[in-house]
Each structure stands twice: as C-alpha cells, then as structure tokens.
Predict the structure.
Amino acid sequence: MASVILDGVGVDFPVYTPRSRSLRQQLTQSLGGRLSADARVVTVRALDDISLALADGDRVGIVGANGAGKTTLLRVIAGVYPPIAGRVAISGKVAAYTDLTLGMDMESSGWENIVYRSIYLGLGFRQARVLAPSIGEFTELGSYLDLPVRTYSQGMLLRLAFAVATAIHPDILVMDEMIGVGDPHFADRAAERVKQLMYNSRILVIASHAQEILRAYCNKILWLEQGRLRGFGPIEETLAQYAASRSASIS
Amino acid sequence: MHEVPVILSSQSGLLAGWRECAAGLANWRIVHLEGSAVLRRRYARSMFGQFWLTLSTAASIVILGGVWTLLWKQPAREIFAYIAVSMILWNFMSTLVTEGAGVFVASAHSLTNQGLAASTYVYALLYRNMLILAHDAVVIAVVLAVHGGVGAGALLFLPGFALALVAGFCVSYLAGMLCARYRDMILFTSTLMQLMFYVTPVLWKRDFLPPRFEWIAHANPFAAFLAIMRDPLLGLAPEPAAWAYALACAAGLVLVTLLVAGAVRRRLIYWL
C-alpha cells in the first residue's frame, strides 16, 4: 500500500537578496505564486493550504498555468521541500524524475553511468550490475556504451537516462513533464516501456501541459492556480472546468 | 527511490538532528559516487591521473623542506618530517572548512531534485578529502621512513584522526548551513582559514614563540587537532592538554551540530 497525504500544506519561498526592500512593493500579477510583503523578507507563496489524499491506483495529472505551483507540489511529494505549514505523510518508495541525468558523470562510460544512475535511484551496486545488461540493450547504443558519455549526442544521452529511469519501478512515481525520446523508431519502444513503468507504480503524479498525455495516463486531474487547489477530481470533468476557466479569462 | 525522507518529519531537537546525520551515512553508496566523482572528473584524461595529487604534494614538501632546512639550520630529516606531516594534515583540515562552507550551495541542484538528507553531501566531502589524504599519505610514509621509521606509538594517530573526522564533519555541516543562508560567510571563511594558517604551528613550532605568546598556539583548536595527529607520527609523547582541548571541542561541536541539524534541516532547501 502506497499513499500520499497532504494536509493543509503551504510552501513559501523567501527571496533573499540585498535588494529585498525595494522588491517589497505590492505587485499585481496573474502568474506565479502570490508575493507577500508583510514579512521582513519578501516571500513567494508557492503553495497554499493544499490538502489531498492519494492511494494505490491514483494516476494524477497536475495542470495549471506557469508558476501555479506544479513543480513545487511534485517536489513536496518527492520530499525535497518540507512544507512551511501543514503536514505531509508519504508511505512507499518515491522516485522523482525531475532531472533524469542527476548523478551522471560525463567522463565515465555509458555502462558506468547506468550503474551510477541506478544507485541514485536507490538500487544497490549488485542489483545495478545485474540490471545493467538489459538496460544497455534497450538503449541500442551498442559499443557507444563503452565510450565516455561526453561523446554522446543529446538524444543518445537522453536514451541512456530514459532506459535507466524506466527500468526501475517505484511505488510512487513523480514526473515533471513526460519523459520521451526523439527518434521515431525508438519512440515506439519507449512508449511501451513508459506504459509499463506507469502501470507498475502504484501512484503516479505527473505535471504536464499536454492533454493527450494526461488523457493517456491519468485518471484524475489536480488543478492548481497561484498555489491554490482549484479542482481535484475525475479527469474529464476537471479538465472541462479547467478549460472553461481559461477561455473565460481570455474573453 | 527512497523511503520517506527524514526532512519531511517535523520533529526538531537532538534526536531529529541525529536522524538527519545518520540518514546521510545510510546513503553511503551515493556518498561514494559523489565523493569520488570530483577526482574522477578532474583527472579523467591525464596520464598520471590522481597521482598528480601525490606528485604536487611531494614537490611542495621538497621545496618547502629545502628552504626551511637552509633557514633553520637544523637537521634536514627532522624538518622534512615535521613539514610534511604538518602541511598535509593542515591541508586536510582547512579544506574541510573552506569546502564545507560551500558544500550545500554546490549541491543545490542535487538537493532540489532528490530529497536526500543534506548530511549526505557533507559525508561525500569528507570522503573525498580522505581519498586525497590517502594519496598524500605516500609522501608522509616516505618522509617518515627516511626519518627513521615509526614506533608503536604512531598508532595513537588513529584515535586522533578519528576525532578530527568527527570535528571535521561538524564544522563542514555548520559552515555549510551558515553559508547557505548568509553568502558573505563563504568569502569570510576562506579569508579566516588563511589567517588561521599563520597562527597555527604548521610551518613553525610552538616553542619558536616567545613564552608570553605561547597561549596563541594553546588557544587555537586547529593547533590541538594538528598536535594529536602529528605528534604520534613524529614519535613525540602525547600532550594531555592538546587531547583534552580537542576532545572538548569535538564534544561541543557534536552537540551544536545535532541541535542545528534538528532545527534548520527543514529550512536549508529554501536558502539555496
């Protein structure tokens, strides 16, 4: 059983700069978190009073404008940001795919980097070495895997990172935008592998602007606006509300 | 993948600080990778690789020892042994402080993308400097062999070194936290360590000081840690005052570190 429980969670980012005082003017803005000027330090309220409970089988897509707090919410679930207010309780192993190349070493070979990445994702050295051949095979990078990854193209590096990320199945999967890889031949195999990854994790939380991706992988939508929870419910219903609000604000 | 990170727990106090420090050690695999990565990258395409560390240390000891022999007009063997051991151990200690100041700022990207205990990166720093020290130890071994070998008393180096590691972890952690919040402190720390070098008996001996200024060397905690590691290697009798002072410093640092870790570990990420 995996679960994610957020109870009245608030996150404030203090803006520490020698120029804090001059920033402290009331600003009207429709994007981003709300700036607060009452404290001694200017703060940006990234999340405000977020309460939600996720259980096994929940595949949640997070929608919202830029700066609505999507990535911050992902990072709260990943354990990066301890909330300033409220309570977070998470049970299960979490993997946060906000940077797929974290821990990679440009001077080391592809094989070595498969092991490094696996370690960062929580495997032991032995497990990582056992898993490496199948990951290496999936990348189709062949003898390139023996070369330092600095010789790789951007696309090749992404393939390598993708192959490791999708080889490990966490209880709770946290993703910022869909992970995907360029070239058409690889893309088909990649899609299959992503599907497996998503269905093997008990809880999926993904932030995305692409509705087709949300419809393909999610069953719930969480709608954030300026750090507040505007809606959380079944996918089509919430997407419709979100779309209606956006067209209202345009007209 | 990792279990619920300790930073999410809202407890504070000594126990929370202890759990934060223990959680970093539990990530020993990442400590190993992070700690060795810098050396791997730095020496990736050079022929001598990381042995440049040994070579450059050896060169500076040879030059310094040579000049000091001429200036002091004392037996070269003794001076070389003193300079080699002092310089290498001082570099170890001072790097922990200066690099500790920037440890969290330098790991900001990693910290914001993976909810690992911050102490993980301090252990990585400690580990990296132990690897560097291991390369420099070759120079110490050669110099001590020429000096006439070491006796069983040299084993006292080990508890001294262990105590320095504990204190080094604490100082790096505290300096890292302070500097993450107040960025001016990074620059202040490197200036401070340069000044400390002058007032610590590294390239000079305490008895060179006029008696009424000897307190400078006694009051300096770096001098105490240097003494408890250096004296056993040079075959000198342990100095109870230095041990007592180093033990007291280490105990105080551990206490402060646990309290600080418990109190501010949840704030760190917002300071980066």
In short: The first helix of chain B runs from residue 14 to 26.
